[in-house]
Amino acid sequence: MTPTTALPRDSARGVALLVAGIAVFSVQDLILKLLSGAYPLHQAMVLRSLTALPLLLLLVHRDGGLGTLFTPNTRAMILRGGVMFLAYTSYYLALAALPMATTVALYFSAPLFITILSVVILKETVGPRRWVALFAGFAGVLIMVRPGGDLFDWAALLPVIAGLTYAISMISARRLGSSETAPALAFWGNGVFLVAAIAMSAVLGSGAWESDAHPSLAFLLRGWAMPTAFDLMLMMACGVIAAIGLTLLTQAYRVAESSVVTPFEYTGLIWSVIFGWIFWRDWPVLTDWIGIAIITGAGLYILWRESRQTHA
Description:
This protein is mostly helical. It is about 75% helix and about 0% strand. The longest helix has about 35 residues, at about 1-35.
């Protein structure tokens, strides 16, 4: 009877953890978009990572101790942190140029990439219905990106890149989660963020490469600026959010099947539409709504089919 009763409890806990993590990270998205017009991304990332570091060390200490950071899989955890860095850097740069809802919707191409990677890496079998949903989902991506059109913005490719790299990191987390703790995975992810952001600041922090040609480029290449007290608090708040959010998301994928919890990542779309309207009066146009509906529908259908196959 134990396995039968444990699964629903773990699934419910995983869903709750993931929904909370998505809500927390949505606030970070809002903060970084607000800061993207005056500060560089690498400055915000350095301050965020420094703030998160002691909080993550505390979580590591409470969940197994510092020894959990140094295991045979330490190198794999660091490599996963590098993939996460690529994912979130691409995502944050997209936020500077695109409406929040557009960025989040394109980022949700991740389940589509997870399906492809499950075939390529995990050698799983995908039926014809899921392939149809997969192609439909990428059609929704094309509708929103509008390649070759007058409204095309190359920044729209950034959240798609983020979706791909995020999918790789989540497959890695599923494998590592059986032996490594969530705080350890989050700690190494934050550590890579800190080192990479410091390296970026050493090259770009003087502002020698500064450019206002595009909002995403400006957010990447802008030199460091002295923040106001309020803006400094916002950057440091991102560190607290990162520590809590990374741990919540990683723990969600550790305690429950990915097919159960992943659909609830789409709750991020709700927050993006709300925040976009409140702060910038951004409201998706009809074409964007069609793309959002197709991507969301395709992603949820793929996850539903995977869930049925898993239970079978």
